[in-house]
Design goal:
695 residues, alpha+beta, Butyryl-Coa Dehydrogenase, subunit A, domain 1, Butyryl-CoA Dehydrogenase, subunit A, domain 2, Butyryl-CoA Dehydrogenase, subunit A, domain 3, 3-stranded antiparallel beta sheet, 26 helices, binds (2E)-Hexenoyl-CoA, binds flavin-adenine dinucleotide, peroxisome, flavoprotein, fatty acid metabolism, acyl-CoA oxidase activity
Length: 695
């Protein structure tokens, strides 16, 4: 009903409204003013980071089209129940599928569409691990049989490795695949409670097929975990097949549109050809043919691929969080020192800028490392297909440490971004809580981060020991050849400005990692009572320093990638000098922020003096100031669309308060004026005779 306001009321209110308007915030104007401060061409960087103008425009065009579809509509996103999320996730996956067919789009466009809608569902593992496993583990005949069905969604698969009792220790899996040469079949079985498969995404209610990781037994001998493909649900009525029990594992911290599942197998028979036989094989008679020695870990190949993609994506998620927080803190005004003055943009508080702008720099650092990671994986695939596995150990070490480092950084970065947005950051409408709860699993899945760091540390210590006996090292561990020299090195920075030199920063990263490697090797030797032992008690008692080493090495790698990428951009003349300068500020800010956080190690080792630390801190603060004017332009250059961010606070027009108010309308609690509690509880309770007088 229209609300009549009389003239006297309006006149009386007018004065107060004027007073408030004189210094109230104007978020749209604030964001426009921020954009006007750019010292570089945002369009140029936007196109560079996103693979060219054409791709940027194509993404915007797709967003425009899919936002109008039922499955692409995000207005209910934050209000769905778990069941609704699950069903919606499936609709999205098939919606994208139909859209791709209709428009004849390829895989890279498909990736863009998935990332735009960002509604993980029951097909995540089909795309993320089932198909990649077929590609990496199946032989040509098996690929010819299964890939077309998988790629046309005739079947939906997942990757069933983890069990109730074992996730990290893959060799400890208890599901068995016992070969019966008489019938040329495997009997797959869950012999214990703890062998129940637990966690695979899509296993609960979606997948019809699985890649099963099970311990292969033939002729009474245990050959450890191998990959098999098998059907688990009927293609007619979607019911589990005989001998198979499957279900959803229940609600999780986040990612609830995905039906992570459990599975038990009771003496189920599958044909010999179900074993994926690209590398290891079983003959009809039951003789085991091992993979080539250089590829003893062939059955772990899919995990390495997925770890590489996780590294690739970490920068994207951090960039999204930082975009939201930077835009919002630029328009959020809070507190004024004198009456009548405009309140301060919260990004201008040193405490906010000092946390957020280093995160912005880190997002750029991760972008470049993600590219290097995927290039390294692609190079590995190429040589693997020629039968050359020589770069496998480095790829494993590199991807394990970076997976752990990048996901730790991004998980923490999303949460820091949320905190910097104050109260509104706690609202799911900001986009940040959901981003955090669904991202943080990256620290656990595909190898718990500490376990992954330990793999990298193991490789580094072995590399160091090898170098000490004259072995030549290659790749990112090459610096360990000079570890003894690094032990005596001292930092030579004597002025604040010298800390801007990338070589000075790189030397500090390298020195810290080299010294930690020597310390870790020493400790392991001591724990082992002589020659280092990489398992059991000596290894377990050295975990903390080994993880510290892997962290230091990964930080060195990320910094080096940033530095080398920028050097490449410069030497190829890919960007204008102003743009390169803006990126160089970010590189410096990233480097000095990490070094500043880790100065304890370098003071302890004697590489840095207290005075050099002071100079470092001063230069880091100066870089925060230098980056500040470009903050909004630099997040604009990531190129996230409003549709993609789905955040009231990250709106590109800055109209954050209207955004909150508008998005909140979709709350199911707002469907009626009185709310669902009135009839259910409130009315009866509040109208009880005497209920008011009791208070
Ligand atoms: C979309 C995503 C959804 C999520 C899905 C999932 O989570 S799916 C579930 C994801 N689940 C997980 O991620 C589980 C995580 N757990 C694992 O990956 C393994 O159990 C492990 C790596 C922790 C240990 O494995 P282990 O006990 O067999 O090995 P060990 O420590 O005794 O070392 C022996 C040697 O092997 C080497 N080597 C090891 N791995 C590789 C490799 N990939 N390549 C090459 N080499 C490798 C290692 O360097 C060492 O070499 P060295 O020094 O002797 O020359
Ligand atoms: C959301 C989500 C989705 C998943 N999807 C899948 C899937 O699709 N398919 C699938 O097969 N699996 C999946 N997983 C399982 C996942 O891969 C495992 O949870 C992960 O590898 C960690 O193993 P865990 O749970 O056994 O942890 P644990 O190994 O039990 O870890 C517990 C603690 O022990 C420490 N620890 C363990 N071993 C060591 C060691 N050797 N040295 C030092 N510290 C150690 C760890 O650091 C950790 O702090 C998923 C998990 C999650 C959370």
């Amino acid at each position: 009903m229209a609300h009549f306001v009389d003239a006297r009321t309006r006149v009386l209110q007018e004065e107060s409204t004027k007073a408030v308007l004189s210094n109230c915030s104007d978020p749209k104007a604030d964001l426009a003013a921020e954009r006007a401060r750019a010292t570089f061409d945002v369009g140029e960087l936007l196109h560079y980071l996103n693979g060219g103008r054409e791709k940027v425009e194509r993404k915007a065009h797709f967003a425009e089209l899919i936002s109008r579809t039922e499955w692409g509509n995000k207005s209910e996103r934050y209000f769905q129940t778990r069941e609704e999320q699950y069903v919606h996730g499936l609709k999205v996956a098939f919606g994208i599928w139909d859209f791709m067919k209709e428009k004849r789009l390829g895989i890279s466009d498909g990736r863009v569409l998935r990332s735009l809608v960002n509604a993980p569902g029951g097909l995540e593992l089909h795309i993320g691990m089932f198909i990649p496993s077929l590609i990496s583990h199946a032989n040509p005949e098996q690929q010819a049989k299964w890939l077309p069905k998988a790629q046309s969604l005739e079947i939906i698969g997942t990757y069933a490795q983890t069990e109730l009792g074992h996730g990290t220790f893959v060799r400890g899996l208890e599901t068995t695949a016992t070969y019966d040469s008489d019938r040329q079949e495997f009997i797959v079985h869950s012999p214990t409670l703890t062998s129940t498969k637990w966690w695979p995404g899509g296993l609960g209610k979606t997948a019809t097929h699985i890649i099963l990781m099970a311990r292969l037994f033939t002729k009474g001998k245990d050959y450890g975990p191998h990959a098999f493909i098998m059907q688990i649900r009927s293609l007619e009525d979607h019911k589990p097949l005989t001998g198979i029990t499957i279900g959803d594992i229940g609600p999780k911290f986040g990612f609830n549109g995905v039906d992570n599942g459990f599975l038990r197998l009771e003496y189920v028979r599958i044909p010999r050809e179900a074993m994926l036989m690209r590398f290891a094989k079983i003959t009809p008679e039951g003789d085991y043919v091992p993979p080539p020695p250089a590829n003893a870990k062939a059955s772990y190949a899919t995990m390495m691929y997925v770890r590489s993609t996780i590294v690739q994506d970490a920068g994207k998620f951090l960039s999204m969080a930082v975009t939201i927080a930077t835009r919002y803190t630029s328009v959020r005004r809070q507190t004024t020192s004198s009456k009548g003055q405009r309140e301060t943009q919260v990004l201008d508080y040193q405490s906010v800028a000092g946390s957020l702008l280093p995160l912005l720099a880190t997002a750029y650092a991760l972008h470049f490392t993600g590219k290097v990671m995927m290039q390294m994986y692609t190079d590995f695939e190429r040589s693997r297909d020629r039968g050359d596995f020589s770069n496998l150990p480095e790829l494993h070490a590199f991807s394990s440490g970076l997976k752990a480092m990048c996901t730790t950084i991004t998980s923490e970065g999303i949460e820091k971004s949320r905190l910097l947005c104050g109260g509104h950051g706690y609202s799911r409408l900001s986009g940040l809580p959901d981003m955090y709860t669904s991202y943080v699993q990256n620290s656990t899945w595909e190898g718990d981060n500490n376990v992954m760091f330990l793999q990298t540390g193991r490789y580094l210590i072995k590399s160091l020991l090898g170098a000490m006996t004259g072995k030549t090292l290659s790749g990112y561990a090459k610096y360990l050849e000079n570890a003894q020299f690094e032990m005596k090195e001292r930092c030579n920075v004597s002025t604040e400005v010298q800390w801007l030199d990338p070589a000075a920063q790189l030397a500090a990263f390298r020195n810290r990692a080299a010294r930690l490697c020597v310390d870790a090797a020493e400790q392991l030797k001591q724990e082992s009572g002589g020659n280092p032992v990489f398992e059991g008690e000596p290894w377990d008692n050295s975990n903390v320093i080994v993880i510290k080493l892997a962290v230091a090495h990964s930080q060195y790698v990320i910094y080096k990638n940033f530095m080398d990428s920028l050097q490449g951009i410069r030497s190829r003349g890919e960007l204008q000098p102003n743009t390169v300068r803006a990126l160089a500020d970010l590189q410096g800010l990233f480097g000095l922020t990490v070094l500043e956080r880790e100065v304890g190690d370098m003071l302890e080792s004697g590489y840095l003096s207290a005075r050099q630390v002071k100079l470092l801190r001063a230069q880091q603060r100066a870089l925060v100031k230098a980056v500040r004017p470009n903050a909004v332009p630099l997040v604009d250059a990531f190129g996230f669309l409003d549709y993609e961010l789905s955040s009231a606070l990250g709106r590109s027009d800055g109209d954050v308060y209207r955004g909150l108010l508008e998005m909140a309308q979709a709350s199911p609690l707002n469907r009626t004026e009185e709310g669902p509690g009135w009839k259910a509880v409130l009315e009866a309770q509040m109208k009880k005779p005497g209920s008011r007088s009791r208070l």
